[in-house]
Specification:
The complex is a heterodimer of chains A (294) and B (128).
Chain A: E1 2-7, H1 11-27, E2 30-37, H2 56-72, E3 81-92, E4 95-104, E5 109-115, H3 118-129, E6 133-137, H4 151-159, E7 163-167, E8 175-180, H5 187-200, E9 203-210, H6 217-232, E10 237-243, H7 247-254, E11 258-263, H8 269-273, H9 278-285, E12 290-293
Parallel strand pairs in A: 1-2, 1-6, 2-5, 6-7, 8-9, 8-11, 9-10, 11-12
Antiparallel strand pairs in A: 3-4, 7-12
Chain B: E1 6-10, H1 14-25, E2 30-34, H2 37-46, E3 51-55, H3 63-73, E4 78-83, H4 88-96, E5 101-104, H5 109-127
Helix pairs in contact in B: 2-3
The chains are: A alpha/beta (294), B alpha/beta (128).
Protein backbone atom coordinates (compact mmCIF):
# COMPACT_ATOMS: atom_id res chain seq x y z
CA UNK A 1 0.00 0.00 0.00
CA UNK A 2 1.20 3.48 -0.80
CA UNK A 3 0.06 6.32 1.42
CA UNK A 4 0.37 10.00 0.66
CA UNK A 5 0.04 12.27 3.68
CA UNK A 6 -0.63 15.86 2.71
CA UNK A 7 -0.10 18.20 5.60
CA UNK A 8 0.68 21.61 6.92
CA UNK A 9 1.68 23.12 10.26
CA UNK A 10 -1.83 23.14 11.81
CA UNK A 11 -2.93 20.79 14.63
CA UNK A 12 -5.32 18.83 12.40
CA UNK A 13 -2.33 17.70 10.32
CA UNK A 14 -0.66 16.36 13.46
CA UNK A 15 -3.82 14.29 14.17
CA UNK A 16 -3.86 13.05 10.59
CA UNK A 17 -0.18 12.12 10.87
CA UNK A 18 -0.97 9.92 13.90
CA UNK A 19 -3.52 8.05 11.79
CA UNK A 20 -0.91 7.63 9.03
CA UNK A 21 1.60 6.28 11.56
CA UNK A 22 -0.88 3.73 12.95
CA UNK A 23 -1.85 2.60 9.47
CA UNK A 24 1.75 2.49 8.25
CA UNK A 25 3.03 0.44 11.20
CA UNK A 26 0.29 -2.10 10.61
CA UNK A 27 0.65 -2.28 6.86
CA UNK A 28 4.32 -1.44 6.15
CA UNK A 29 3.06 1.09 3.66
CA UNK A 30 5.36 3.18 1.51
CA UNK A 31 4.71 6.63 2.93
CA UNK A 32 5.27 10.06 1.46
CA UNK A 33 4.85 13.08 3.71
CA UNK A 34 4.00 15.98 1.44
CA UNK A 35 4.17 19.63 2.40
CA UNK A 36 2.51 22.08 0.06
CA UNK A 37 3.39 25.72 0.30
CA UNK A 38 1.95 28.59 -1.69
CA UNK A 39 4.77 29.41 -4.13
CA UNK A 40 5.82 32.81 -2.71
CA UNK A 41 6.04 31.37 0.82
CA UNK A 42 8.96 29.10 -0.10
CA UNK A 43 12.27 30.93 -0.07
CA UNK A 44 15.47 29.61 -1.57
CA UNK A 45 18.92 30.61 -0.39
CA UNK A 46 20.28 33.02 -3.00
CA UNK A 47 22.47 31.38 -5.61
CA UNK A 48 22.27 27.97 -3.95
CA UNK A 49 18.80 26.54 -4.60
CA UNK A 50 18.42 25.12 -1.08
CA UNK A 51 15.51 26.03 1.16
CA UNK A 52 16.14 28.68 3.78
CA UNK A 53 16.47 26.86 7.13
CA UNK A 54 14.20 29.20 9.09
CA UNK A 55 11.04 28.36 7.16
CA UNK A 56 8.23 26.91 9.26
CA UNK A 57 6.91 24.25 6.86
CA UNK A 58 10.22 22.38 6.32
CA UNK A 59 10.83 22.55 10.09
CA UNK A 60 7.40 21.09 10.82
CA UNK A 61 8.01 18.29 8.36
CA UNK A 62 11.38 17.49 9.94
CA UNK A 63 9.44 17.11 13.15
CA UNK A 64 6.80 14.91 11.43
CA UNK A 65 9.57 12.66 10.06
CA UNK A 66 11.15 12.33 13.50
CA UNK A 67 7.74 11.60 15.06
CA UNK A 68 7.09 8.90 12.46
CA UNK A 69 10.48 7.22 12.83
CA UNK A 70 10.35 7.38 16.63
CA UNK A 71 6.93 5.68 16.61
CA UNK A 72 8.25 3.02 14.21
CA UNK A 73 11.20 2.30 16.54
CA UNK A 74 14.51 0.72 15.65
CA UNK A 75 13.86 -2.97 16.17
CA UNK A 76 11.71 -4.90 13.74
CA UNK A 77 10.89 -1.69 11.92
CA UNK A 78 10.80 -1.70 8.13
CA UNK A 79 11.52 2.04 8.22
CA UNK A 80 14.66 1.82 10.39
CA UNK A 81 17.44 3.56 8.44
CA UNK A 82 19.92 1.19 6.80
CA UNK A 83 23.51 1.94 5.90
CA UNK A 84 24.63 4.90 3.78
CA UNK A 85 25.14 4.12 0.10
CA UNK A 86 25.62 5.94 -3.18
CA UNK A 87 22.64 5.77 -5.54
CA UNK A 88 21.71 7.33 -8.84
CA UNK A 89 18.64 9.38 -8.01
CA UNK A 90 16.40 10.75 -10.78
CA UNK A 91 15.96 14.52 -10.46
CA UNK A 92 13.66 14.90 -13.47
CA UNK A 93 13.08 12.98 -16.70
CA UNK A 94 16.49 12.28 -18.25
CA UNK A 95 18.50 13.76 -15.36
CA UNK A 96 20.09 11.70 -12.56
CA UNK A 97 22.47 12.60 -9.77
CA UNK A 98 24.60 10.22 -7.75
CA UNK A 99 23.79 10.91 -4.12
CA UNK A 100 24.72 9.45 -0.77
CA UNK A 101 21.44 8.12 0.64
CA UNK A 102 20.26 6.19 3.66
CA UNK A 103 17.12 4.21 2.91
CA UNK A 104 14.73 2.42 5.23
CA UNK A 105 15.53 -1.24 5.86
CA UNK A 106 12.53 -2.45 3.86
CA UNK A 107 10.30 0.57 3.29
CA UNK A 108 10.95 4.18 2.52
CA UNK A 109 9.60 7.23 4.23
CA UNK A 110 9.83 10.12 1.81
CA UNK A 111 9.42 13.76 2.75
CA UNK A 112 8.65 16.17 -0.07
CA UNK A 113 7.82 19.81 -0.45
CA UNK A 114 5.96 21.22 -3.41
CA UNK A 115 5.18 24.86 -4.02
CA UNK A 116 2.02 25.92 -5.77
CA UNK A 117 -1.71 25.29 -5.71
CA UNK A 118 -2.39 22.82 -2.88
CA UNK A 119 -5.09 20.76 -4.63
CA UNK A 120 -3.17 20.45 -7.88
CA UNK A 121 0.09 19.56 -6.12
CA UNK A 122 -1.53 16.93 -3.88
CA UNK A 123 -3.33 15.31 -6.82
CA UNK A 124 -0.20 15.40 -8.99
CA UNK A 125 1.90 13.76 -6.28
CA UNK A 126 -0.73 11.06 -5.70
CA UNK A 127 -0.85 10.40 -9.43
CA UNK A 128 2.94 10.26 -9.86
CA UNK A 129 3.43 8.03 -6.82
CA UNK A 130 0.45 5.79 -7.71
CA UNK A 131 -0.83 6.28 -4.17
CA UNK A 132 -3.56 3.99 -2.89
CA UNK A 133 -4.65 6.41 -0.20
CA UNK A 134 -4.34 10.13 0.41
CA UNK A 135 -4.61 11.13 4.07
CA UNK A 136 -5.14 14.72 5.10
CA UNK A 137 -6.52 16.53 8.09
CA UNK A 138 -8.88 19.45 8.34
CA UNK A 139 -10.64 21.39 11.07
CA UNK A 140 -13.35 19.49 12.94
CA UNK A 141 -17.04 20.21 13.25
CA UNK A 142 -18.96 21.33 10.24
CA UNK A 143 -16.30 23.58 8.73
CA UNK A 144 -13.63 21.38 7.20
CA UNK A 145 -11.00 24.04 6.57
CA UNK A 146 -7.41 23.55 5.38
CA UNK A 147 -4.95 26.39 5.74
CA UNK A 148 -7.89 28.67 6.47
CA UNK A 149 -9.58 27.91 3.18
CA UNK A 150 -12.56 25.65 2.58
CA UNK A 151 -12.10 23.99 -0.79
CA UNK A 152 -8.84 22.03 -0.42
CA UNK A 153 -10.13 18.86 1.33
CA UNK A 154 -13.40 18.93 -0.58
CA UNK A 155 -11.68 19.26 -3.93
CA UNK A 156 -9.12 16.56 -3.14
CA UNK A 157 -11.99 14.27 -2.14
CA UNK A 158 -13.89 15.09 -5.32
CA UNK A 159 -11.04 14.89 -7.81
CA UNK A 160 -8.57 12.29 -6.49
CA UNK A 161 -8.10 9.12 -8.51
CA UNK A 162 -7.59 7.03 -5.36
CA UNK A 163 -9.23 6.70 -1.95
CA UNK A 164 -9.01 9.65 0.44
CA UNK A 165 -9.10 9.60 4.24
CA UNK A 166 -10.02 12.93 5.74
CA UNK A 167 -9.14 13.06 9.43
CA UNK A 168 -11.20 15.66 11.23
CA UNK A 169 -9.85 15.33 14.74
CA UNK A 170 -8.18 12.89 17.08
CA UNK A 171 -10.86 10.38 17.97
CA UNK A 172 -11.31 6.67 18.38
CA UNK A 173 -13.33 4.93 15.73
CA UNK A 174 -15.74 2.29 16.98
CA UNK A 175 -17.86 1.92 13.90
CA UNK A 176 -17.41 2.22 10.16
CA UNK A 177 -20.55 3.27 8.36
CA UNK A 178 -20.11 2.29 4.73
CA UNK A 179 -22.79 3.75 2.48
CA UNK A 180 -23.68 1.97 -0.71
CA UNK A 181 -25.86 3.37 -3.48
CA UNK A 182 -24.49 1.57 -6.56
CA UNK A 183 -23.47 -1.92 -7.61
CA UNK A 184 -19.92 -1.17 -8.80
CA UNK A 185 -17.52 -1.60 -5.91
CA UNK A 186 -13.78 -2.02 -6.51
CA UNK A 187 -11.78 -4.79 -4.87
CA UNK A 188 -9.37 -2.10 -3.64
CA UNK A 189 -12.14 -0.33 -1.76
CA UNK A 190 -13.29 -3.55 -0.06
CA UNK A 191 -9.71 -4.14 1.04
CA UNK A 192 -9.33 -0.57 2.28
CA UNK A 193 -12.35 -1.08 4.56
CA UNK A 194 -10.79 -4.36 5.78
CA UNK A 195 -7.64 -2.54 6.79
CA UNK A 196 -9.49 0.30 8.52
CA UNK A 197 -11.75 -2.12 10.42
CA UNK A 198 -8.71 -4.17 11.49
CA UNK A 199 -6.74 -1.07 12.51
CA UNK A 200 -9.50 0.30 14.75
CA UNK A 201 -11.10 -2.99 15.79
CA UNK A 202 -14.26 -1.32 14.49
CA UNK A 203 -17.62 -2.83 13.66
CA UNK A 204 -18.87 -2.39 10.16
CA UNK A 205 -22.34 -1.16 9.33
CA UNK A 206 -23.40 -1.28 5.69
CA UNK A 207 -25.94 1.39 4.84
CA UNK A 208 -27.94 0.81 1.68
CA UNK A 209 -29.24 4.08 0.28
CA UNK A 210 -32.78 3.78 -1.03
CA UNK A 211 -34.94 6.20 -3.01
CA UNK A 212 -38.62 6.43 -2.07
CA UNK A 213 -38.42 3.16 -0.20
CA UNK A 214 -37.01 1.25 -3.17
CA UNK A 215 -33.63 0.01 -4.19
CA UNK A 216 -32.27 -1.28 -7.48
CA UNK A 217 -32.06 -5.07 -7.54
CA UNK A 218 -28.38 -5.13 -8.48
CA UNK A 219 -27.51 -2.70 -5.67
CA UNK A 220 -29.48 -4.74 -3.15
CA UNK A 221 -27.75 -7.92 -4.35
CA UNK A 222 -24.38 -6.22 -4.04
CA UNK A 223 -25.21 -5.11 -0.51
CA UNK A 224 -25.89 -8.72 0.46
CA UNK A 225 -22.70 -9.91 -1.29
CA UNK A 226 -20.59 -7.33 0.52
CA UNK A 227 -22.13 -8.33 3.85
CA UNK A 228 -21.23 -11.97 3.09
CA UNK A 229 -17.71 -10.94 2.02
CA UNK A 230 -17.02 -9.32 5.39
CA UNK A 231 -18.75 -12.03 7.42
CA UNK A 232 -16.52 -14.61 5.70
CA UNK A 233 -13.57 -12.57 6.92
CA UNK A 234 -14.82 -12.47 10.52
CA UNK A 235 -15.60 -8.75 10.49
CA UNK A 236 -18.69 -7.89 12.52
CA UNK A 237 -21.16 -6.49 10.03
CA UNK A 238 -24.75 -5.32 10.13
CA UNK A 239 -26.89 -3.91 7.32
CA UNK A 240 -29.69 -1.37 7.12
CA UNK A 241 -31.40 0.88 4.62
CA UNK A 242 -31.67 4.68 4.73
CA UNK A 243 -33.62 7.02 2.48
CA UNK A 244 -31.29 9.04 0.31
CA UNK A 245 -33.34 12.20 0.89
CA UNK A 246 -32.57 11.89 4.61
CA UNK A 247 -28.90 11.07 4.10
CA UNK A 248 -27.60 14.55 4.86
CA UNK A 249 -29.42 14.78 8.19
CA UNK A 250 -28.36 11.20 8.94
CA UNK A 251 -24.70 12.24 8.51
CA UNK A 252 -25.21 15.34 10.59
CA UNK A 253 -27.00 13.70 13.51
CA UNK A 254 -26.00 10.06 13.78
CA UNK A 255 -22.25 10.01 13.32
CA UNK A 256 -20.28 10.29 16.56
CA UNK A 257 -17.27 8.00 17.08
CA UNK A 258 -17.63 6.66 13.58
CA UNK A 259 -15.88 6.69 10.26
CA UNK A 260 -18.13 7.55 7.36
CA UNK A 261 -17.10 5.57 4.30
CA UNK A 262 -18.50 6.60 0.94
CA UNK A 263 -18.14 4.68 -2.29
CA UNK A 264 -17.61 7.02 -5.22
CA UNK A 265 -18.68 5.75 -8.59
CA UNK A 266 -20.09 6.81 -11.91
CA UNK A 267 -23.49 5.25 -11.29
CA UNK A 268 -23.96 6.78 -7.87
CA UNK A 269 -27.54 7.56 -6.93
CA UNK A 270 -26.17 10.46 -4.94
CA UNK A 271 -25.03 12.01 -8.22
CA UNK A 272 -28.64 12.33 -9.30
CA UNK A 273 -29.90 13.70 -5.99
CA UNK A 274 -27.16 16.15 -5.17
CA UNK A 275 -24.96 18.59 -7.11
CA UNK A 276 -21.71 17.39 -8.68
CA UNK A 277 -19.60 18.06 -5.59
CA UNK A 278 -21.82 16.08 -3.22
CA UNK A 279 -18.84 14.25 -1.71
CA UNK A 280 -17.27 17.56 -0.68
CA UNK A 281 -20.61 18.69 0.72
CA UNK A 282 -21.06 15.55 2.86
CA UNK A 283 -17.46 15.70 3.96
CA UNK A 284 -18.08 19.21 5.27
CA UNK A 285 -21.31 18.19 6.94
CA UNK A 286 -19.86 15.16 8.71
CA UNK A 287 -18.57 15.80 12.24
CA UNK A 288 -16.20 12.82 12.14
CA UNK A 289 -13.54 11.44 9.81
CA UNK A 290 -14.49 10.39 6.30
CA UNK A 291 -13.09 7.75 3.97
CA UNK A 292 -13.98 8.26 0.33
CA UNK A 293 -13.33 5.06 -1.59
CA UNK A 294 -12.58 4.45 -5.24
CA UNK B 1 22.13 -20.34 -11.74
CA UNK B 2 19.02 -20.86 -13.84
CA UNK B 3 17.68 -17.81 -15.65
CA UNK B 4 13.98 -18.19 -15.05
CA UNK B 5 13.06 -17.92 -11.39
CA UNK B 6 10.13 -19.93 -10.05
CA UNK B 7 7.41 -18.22 -8.03
CA UNK B 8 4.59 -19.74 -6.01
CA UNK B 9 1.55 -17.56 -5.26
CA UNK B 10 -0.89 -18.62 -2.54
CA UNK B 11 -4.05 -16.61 -1.88
CA UNK B 12 -7.51 -17.96 -1.18
CA UNK B 13 -9.04 -15.10 -3.14
CA UNK B 14 -8.98 -16.31 -6.78
CA UNK B 15 -8.97 -12.73 -8.07
CA UNK B 16 -5.51 -12.16 -6.53
CA UNK B 17 -4.02 -15.22 -8.25
CA UNK B 18 -5.73 -14.25 -11.49
CA UNK B 19 -4.16 -10.77 -11.38
CA UNK B 20 -0.70 -11.81 -10.22
CA UNK B 21 0.01 -14.73 -12.53
CA UNK B 22 0.01 -12.81 -15.86
CA UNK B 23 1.63 -9.73 -14.27
CA UNK B 24 4.59 -11.81 -13.06
CA UNK B 25 4.82 -14.04 -16.12
CA UNK B 26 5.11 -10.87 -18.22
CA UNK B 27 8.31 -10.12 -16.29
CA UNK B 28 9.73 -13.50 -17.24
CA UNK B 29 9.02 -15.53 -14.10
CA UNK B 30 7.54 -19.02 -14.00
CA UNK B 31 4.46 -18.78 -11.80
CA UNK B 32 2.32 -21.42 -10.07
CA UNK B 33 -0.81 -20.22 -8.23
CA UNK B 34 -2.81 -21.89 -5.48
CA UNK B 35 -6.02 -20.94 -3.71
CA UNK B 36 -5.87 -23.95 -1.33
CA UNK B 37 -3.15 -23.75 1.29
CA UNK B 38 -3.06 -27.54 1.71
CA UNK B 39 -2.27 -28.00 -1.98
CA UNK B 40 0.40 -25.30 -1.84
CA UNK B 41 1.95 -26.97 1.21
CA UNK B 42 2.12 -30.24 -0.69
CA UNK B 43 3.66 -28.44 -3.68
CA UNK B 44 6.55 -26.85 -1.75
CA UNK B 45 7.65 -30.34 -0.74
CA UNK B 46 7.76 -31.34 -4.41
CA UNK B 47 9.28 -28.28 -6.07
CA UNK B 48 11.89 -25.68 -5.14
CA UNK B 49 10.62 -22.13 -5.46
CA UNK B 50 12.87 -19.09 -5.51
CA UNK B 51 10.12 -16.73 -4.38
CA UNK B 52 6.90 -17.43 -2.50
CA UNK B 53 4.07 -14.89 -2.26
CA UNK B 54 1.52 -15.82 0.38
CA UNK B 55 -1.60 -14.39 1.93
CA UNK B 56 -1.81 -14.55 5.73
CA UNK B 57 -5.44 -15.12 6.63
CA UNK B 58 -6.60 -18.36 5.07
CA UNK B 59 -8.75 -21.31 6.00
CA UNK B 60 -6.91 -24.54 6.89
CA UNK B 61 -3.21 -23.55 7.02
CA UNK B 62 -2.58 -19.88 7.75
CA UNK B 63 0.09 -17.88 5.95
CA UNK B 64 2.40 -17.63 8.95
CA UNK B 65 2.63 -21.41 9.22
CA UNK B 66 3.12 -21.67 5.50
CA UNK B 67 5.94 -19.11 5.71
CA UNK B 68 7.64 -21.15 8.43
CA UNK B 69 7.36 -24.32 6.38
CA UNK B 70 8.74 -22.64 3.25
CA UNK B 71 11.75 -21.35 5.20
CA UNK B 72 12.25 -24.76 6.82
CA UNK B 73 12.20 -26.52 3.46
CA UNK B 74 14.42 -24.04 1.68
CA UNK B 75 15.84 -21.15 3.75
CA UNK B 76 17.06 -19.23 0.71
CA UNK B 77 13.53 -18.87 -0.68
CA UNK B 78 12.43 -15.25 -0.42
CA UNK B 79 8.93 -14.92 1.00
CA UNK B 80 6.65 -11.97 0.36
CA UNK B 81 3.59 -11.74 2.59
CA UNK B 82 0.42 -10.06 1.34
CA UNK B 83 -2.49 -9.39 3.67
CA UNK B 84 -5.85 -7.73 3.74
CA UNK B 85 -5.91 -7.62 7.56
CA UNK B 86 -2.60 -6.15 8.59
CA UNK B 87 -1.81 -5.76 12.27
CA UNK B 88 1.36 -4.63 13.96
CA UNK B 89 1.69 -8.11 15.46
CA UNK B 90 1.51 -9.94 12.12
CA UNK B 91 3.92 -7.42 10.58
CA UNK B 92 6.44 -7.93 13.40
CA UNK B 93 6.01 -11.70 13.35
CA UNK B 94 6.68 -11.69 9.62
CA UNK B 95 9.78 -9.58 10.19
CA UNK B 96 11.09 -12.04 12.81
CA UNK B 97 10.50 -14.96 10.48
CA UNK B 98 12.62 -13.31 7.82
CA UNK B 99 10.16 -12.19 5.18
CA UNK B 100 11.56 -10.30 2.26
CA UNK B 101 8.64 -7.89 2.32
CA UNK B 102 5.17 -7.42 3.72
CA UNK B 103 2.55 -5.86 1.46
CA UNK B 104 -0.89 -4.81 2.62
CA UNK B 105 -3.87 -4.89 0.30
CA UNK B 106 -4.88 -2.92 -1.67
CA UNK B 107 -1.74 -2.80 -3.78
CA UNK B 108 -1.06 -1.99 -7.39
CA UNK B 109 0.48 -4.64 -9.64
CA UNK B 110 3.45 -2.35 -10.20
CA UNK B 111 4.14 -2.42 -6.44
CA UNK B 112 4.31 -6.20 -6.24
CA UNK B 113 6.24 -6.40 -9.52
CA UNK B 114 8.83 -4.04 -8.09
CA UNK B 115 9.14 -6.03 -4.86
CA UNK B 116 9.47 -9.32 -6.79
CA UNK B 117 12.16 -7.78 -9.01
CA UNK B 118 14.08 -6.69 -5.90
CA UNK B 119 13.81 -10.19 -4.44
CA UNK B 120 15.00 -11.65 -7.75
CA UNK B 121 17.97 -9.26 -7.81
CA UNK B 122 18.91 -10.37 -4.30
CA UNK B 123 18.69 -14.04 -5.27
CA UNK B 124 20.76 -13.53 -8.41
CA UNK B 125 23.25 -11.38 -6.51
CA UNK B 126 23.71 -14.08 -3.89
CA UNK B 127 24.25 -16.72 -6.57
CA UNK B 128 26.78 -14.66 -8.58
Amino acid sequence: MKILFAGDEHPYSAFALQEVIRLALNTWADVTLLAVSPAPAVRELPGYGALAPDQPLPRVFNHYRETFLKAAGEEESPYAPEKWQYEWVPLKTGVWEEMLVKRGLKKDLKVRLRAGNAVQEILAEAHNEESDLIVLGCTGGGQCLWQGATPVPQRVVNDAGCSVLLVKEEQSINRILACLDQSYISQDSLEMVNQMATLHGAQLELIGLSAEGGMKKDVYRRLIEIGDYYEDRQIKVSTRLTEIAEFESFIDQELKQDLLALWMGKKSLLDRFFPRDWAGRFVSKCQTSVLVMR
Amino acid sequence: MKDQLKILVLDDEPIVCKRLKPALEKLGYEVDTFIQSVEAMHQIHQTSYDIVITDLKMKEIDGMRFLEEVKKQRPQTEVIVITGFATMETAKQSFRKGVFDFIAKPFKLSEIQEVVNRAAAKIKGAAA
